[in-house]
From TrEMBL:
Gene Ontology annotations of biological process type: brassinosteroid mediated signaling pathway
Domain Protein kinase: 58-324
The protein's name in its UniProt record: non-specific serine/threonine protein kinase
Pfam families: Pkinase, TPR_BSK1_C
Membrane topology: Lipid-anchor
MF term (GO), any: ATP binding
Upper taxonomic lineage: Eukaryota, Viridiplantae, Streptophyta, Embryophyta, Tracheophyta
Length: 500
């Protein structure tokens, strides 16, 4: 899912001056630049299957402890957009129409603090949600499993504020219930800004269960009634505040005991090493305590949360990715602009064969394989016959025969075509001869130095030779060439339109 740049985060200054973040975000009022977020749509199952390489286990990105069939995948659409796809079981949503209608409703709730929902799919037994892709992991990862540095205090305050903004926006859009709010539901975009997952806005988002966490963390009223209310969401927000304060996932009852005993130092994350002001920490602890009140009516509203947290914001001029120590990097998957690239990424030789058949020899137009008049008159008939029989064998998947005819054609032609080498390379692979396949794929590159197919065929051969790292490099090189071609074509079309 492509992430869009965030606006600078400004708040009310100490002297009460109104700064940018408290002004209306945009004319449309939803805090989202419309041209940066894809319109909500219903996707076809084939498109989402291709985007995830057949729902490959290697592309599973959920780390929330959710077990199959509720799994989140990373994917890339044909238009190069990165996405996250959540796959439910049919039992979660037996009614396909109800699922699509609920998803469309959630898809209208757009905000810069949300991981916006951009589509769904309800074909057969499949129930899939499609959202923007967040490349920088979850709050759980950064709080509980950090490697380089603990999350700075200023960033923790920013998380608390941004998530309160997201919940408040959902509330104003009549989406007052958020299911199972926890540190796994907060994700970080390419700018390092925290966003609240839109998956939690869906009803029945966990096979009909509103909480998957330990019962010690669920609102008291949910244990009594089994229902989620807006006040229940505030309680869960309080548990997230505890996570931010302590750097641990501790039961609310234990935290409240520490707070009542005024043992705040035991509650605070020791890795922060006093980088916070005691007054600010006390205020955040007090807010968490209010959120965790036993009676729902005693908990604060979202507006109160925003009013309480906004003055605590620190280092507002520093970008989130800088505070987090993150390197901005939007590359997450090879750029696959064509079905051939995707088929090679899956190492699907049958699909590659089908694509090469459909493509024919049209890519040879860029190769220098013109025959002289003498070669034409002397060799054309033999060449045509040899090529014809080779192509028939290739079509019929008689790869051994195809190799024989294509090998004769290589000898006859003074400058063999790159497509011929690509076809013979695949035939060698089908015949379990990856060394010869690699040789032909390299020869195809000699014929057309910037032909993506040549790189993809080398990737296939290298994979079959057990050279996985080199294979991935070739896939990426081929993808980069495709992206370059696509960019040049787009630029040319744009210039043609402008000039006309």
């Amino acid at each position: 899912m492509g992430c869009f740049p965030s606006k600078p985060n400004n708040f009310r200054s100490p002297d009460g001056e109104l700064l940018e973040a408290e002004k209306p975000d945009l004319a449309n009022g939803d805090g989202v630049e419309e041209d940066k977020v894809a319109a909500f749509k219903e996707y076809g199952l084939a498109e989402l299957r291709a985007a995830t390489n057949g729902f490959s286990r290697e592309l599973i990105i959920s780390e929330s402890g959710e077990k199959a069939p509720n799994v989140v995948y990373k994917g890339k659409l044909d238009n190069n957009r990165l996405i996250a796809i959540k796959r439910f079981s049919k039992e979660s949503w037996p009614d396909a129409r109800q699922f699509a209608a609920e998803a469309a409703g959630v898809g209208k709730v757009r905000h810069k603090r949300l991981v916006n929902l951009i589509g769904c799919c309800a074909e057969g037994d499949e129930r899939l949600l499609v959202a923007e892709y967040m490349p920088n992991d979850t709050l759980s990862k950064h709080l509980f499993h950090w490697e380089k540095q603990p999350m700075p205090w200023a960033m923790r305050l920013r998380v608390a504020y941004y998530i309160a903004q997201a919940l408040d926006h959902c509330n104003t859009e009549n989406r007052r219930i958020y299911h199972d709010l926890n540190a796994f539901r907060v994700l970080f975009d390419e700018d390092g800004d925290p966003r609240l997952s839109s998956f939690g806005v869906m009803k029945n988002s966990r096979d009909g269960k509103s909480y998957s966490t330990n019962l010690a963390y669920t609102p008291p009223e949910f244990l009594r009634t089994g229902r989620v209310t807006p006040e229940s969401v505030v309680y869960s927000y309080g548990t997230v505040l505890l996570d931010l304060l302590s750097g641990k996932h501790i039961p609310p009852s234990h935290a409240l005991d520490l707070i009542r005993g005024k043992n705040l130092l035991l509650l605070m994350d020791s890795s922060l090493e006093g980088q916070y002001a005691s007054e600010d920490a006390t205020k955040l602890v007090g807010l968490a305590s209010r959120c965790l009140q036993f009676e729902p009516r005693d908990r604060p509203t979202y507006k109160f949360l925003l009013t309480a947290i906004a003055p605590l914001q620190k280092e507002v001029e520093v970008a989130s990715h800088v505070l987090m120590g993150l390197t901005k990097n939007t590359v997450a998957l090879p750029i696959m602009l064509s079905p051939l690239g995707k088929a090679c990424a899956r190492m699907d030789l049958t699909a590659v064969h089908d694509i090469l058949l459909k493509t024919g020899y049209k890519d040879d137009e860029g190769a220098e394989n013109e025959l002289s008049f003498q070669e034409w008159t002397q060799q054309v008939q033999e060449m045509l016959n040899t090529k014809k029989f080779g192509d028939i064998a290739f079509r019929d998947k008689d790869f051994k025969t195809a190799i024989d005819y294509y090998s004769k054609l290589v000898v006859i032609m003074s400058v063999p075509s790159p497509t011929l080498f690509a076809r013979r390379a695949l035939s060698y692979l089908m015949n379990k001869q990856p060394e010869l396949a690699l040789r032909d794929a390299m020869q195809a590159q000699v014929c057309l130095p910037e032909w993506p197919t040549a790189f993809y065929m080398q990737a296939l051969a290298l994979s079959h030779l057990g050279m996985d790292t080199d294979s991935q490099d070739m896939l990426n090189d081929g993808a980069a060439l495709e992206a370059k071609r696509h960019s040049n074509t787009t630029s040319w079309r744009s210039s043609s339109v402008n000039s006309s």
